[in-house]
Amino acid sequence: MTSPQNVYHTINRTRQKGRSYVSQIALITGASGQDGWYLTDWLIGQGYEVHGLIPCRAPGSGDARLRLHYGDLSDGSNLIQLLDEIQPDEVYNLAAQSYVGLSFELPVYTGDVTGLGALRLLEAVRLHMKRTGRFVKFYQASSSEMFGKVEESPQNERTPFHPRSPYACAKIYAHLQTMNYREAYGMFACSGILFNHESPRRGENFVTRKITRAAGRIKVGLQERLSLGNLDASRDWGFAGDYVRAMWLMLQHDKPDDYVIGTGETHSIREFLDEVFSYLELDWHDYVDVDPKYFRPAEVDIVCADASKAKRVLKWEPTISFRELARMMADHDLELAQRDLRLGK
Ligand code: GDP
């Protein structure tokens, strides 16, 4: 019997063959974030026409390569209209309320945008495909936070979830809906269970960027102290540029599936501090305060990716080491601090 999946594959191949002169079209939600920037970069390099969805209140992504559309995942009817207008071949759902700490303050909002938002988009894609007969591939940004209080180490695609925040609960809901749309409707829907990924474009509230930004400013004399929370927490940190390539590879594979993406190396916040401050010839012990305000009601202590499936099936490999990542971010933020100094900020 032909499964719905196979039917979609056939339609896809025919259609791509029939319009090989037209570039592929991608829609990225959450396009103004770190991953949106790197993914845009990658897709444009692959010859795609890239459209980005950004919230009305966002100042704009500042990325002239993107065709921007205002809207967000709280409005399902707007999503359907948008899909009809753009006619994308691939949809990457990167939009979320993505601050884990803030999700404890805003649990319902986080559930609405990060959890239900993904369902609204999945449903919009399903209806769009049904009505137009078009074939659209879907990527969901799942997260290592879903493993939370880890039940085994390292974590792979079969490791049970044990969420430790409203954010993680919302991401699990979105992850399971993506799986359900794949199985129930034969949609080409994939989830990338991405471990923490950083870059000079990381938001300044995330701990790595908070550290590199402060270290640069301390180095040039613009800042004296840095307040942090739990220094014993550990993460599997990789480079965002490597991880968006994995997203794209998932959608180029013959079969939709879920993949863990990470480096397989774990480092503590202390180790990240060591790496960054010593690179700038500073000793972090002289500058860092621990403030209980930054501790979370429940914490993910240590996570570590087993990305062997992605390596085997997608031939994906990370290219940037922990040290290179820390130094790349430190270099960038030292330059930014020097500019701040010149501008008297
Ligand atoms: P997350 O893994 O998505 O929550 O990424 P974050 O960069 O926000 O946090 C990584 C880890 O750093 C968590 O275990 C936090 O508890 C810990 N951490 C320690 N101090 C801070 C801080 O000042 N800000 C943030 N965001 N995290 C901190």
- Number of structural domains: 2
Low-confidence stretches: 1-21
Average of the residue pLDDT scores: 92
Portion of residues in beta strands equals 5-15%
* Largest sheet descriptor: 7 strands, parallel
Explain how this protein is built.
It is a single chain. With 345 residues, this protein is an alpha/beta fold. The chain has two domains: 22-199 and 239-261, Rossmann fold (3-Layer(aba) Sandwich); 207-235 and 265-299 and 320-343, UDP-galactose 4-epimerase, domain 1. It is 45% helix and 14% strand. The chain has helices at 4-18, 34-45, 76-86, 100-103, 107-132, 166-185, 207-219, 240-252, 269-279, 308-314, 322-343, and strands at residues 25-29, 49-54, 67-70, 90-93, 137-143, 189-194, 197-198, 226-228, 234-235, 238-239, 258-261, 267-268, 288-290. The strands form four sheets. It has a seven-stranded parallel β-sheet, sandwiched between helices. A two-stranded parallel ribbon has the order 7-10. A two-stranded parallel sheet has the order 8-13. It is globular and about 60 Å long. Residues 100-101, 145, 196, 205-207, 210, 228-230, 233, 235, 269, 294, 296, 299-300 line the site of guanosine-5'-diphosphate.
